[in-house]
Amino acid sequence: MLEPTQLAALARVALGHVQREYPHIAPMRLASAADLQPPSRLHPVFYGSYDWHSCVHSYWLLARIRHLAPALPEAQAINDLFDQQLTSAKLEQERTFFLQPGKRNFERPYGWAWLLKLQAELAGANTRWAEALQPLATELAQGMTEYLPRLSAPIRSGAHNNTAFALLLAMDYAEACADHALAAQIHTSACDFYLHDRSCQAWEPGGEDFLSPALQEAALMQRLLSVKEFDSWFSGFLPRLAEGEPATLLTPAHSRDRSDGKLAHLDGLNLSRAWCLRALAKDQPLALRQRLLSAAQAHLQVSLPHIQGDYMGEHWLATFALLALQERA
User: Fold this and answer.
1) Where in the chain are the domains?
2) Closest CA to 229 of 238, 237, 221
3) Residues 216, 164 contacting (CB under 8 angstroms)
């Protein structure tokens, strides 16, 4: 089980930066001088945590911790934050941002997927905050449903554009909020993109990766296929995994400079890999299960101590730590 002390520590990290406006980075096309406004003017809810998507997934972390441990002392601070920020008026301004010319693709697909995962978490608790967030979630879910058929091939990067990661998170929303059109499109796109993949070489990680293209793909297919279908696919996709190959997938990465935001990504890679490895270990033969769990633990040991210390990692790593730790639980 996750310890309350672990959850409390992660909550305090996120509470410490979701309303920290600067430093801030905004991957946005400027249409005019009117776009040059402070982050909190453009995004009255998701202006903290260095960038929009990190702020969104930090809200998910807080919502998840509130769900897992409602008796934590930090839960009241989370409630107060959500009451202040997750209002219909503020979230409507977030929604209308995406309706402006040139803003429709802002944060696609990574930020979209995290917003949908946040809504899945809030909707599961049947909260007033979910009601306020739903119009924005509906807008981005529709955008995802329309975007996927236009994508001629999956994006297999180890960073924000990774298609498999976005589909995995968006599926949480599609199921929790009964978005059957999005669920169907995710199934169709995932099968088109990945079903015939075989003998993955796993030439990773790249020096700035925080996602494993191979493991994210496998975790997505595990989610979408039946156990029998997945076993057949997985044995063809990574046929020598039980023998420890490709070794690159099972070996933790090491950041050489955690003050560099891009190089700090490697701690996120270790945490996201641990999340996937623990998920993939389920229902596997004993030898493979033990190998995957051992590799996951090794990845956690390298990067869990570094989720705080430098803001370039601190503004986002706690979320990936929670993904890994709750999968571990």
Assistant:
1) 197-329
2) 221
3) yes
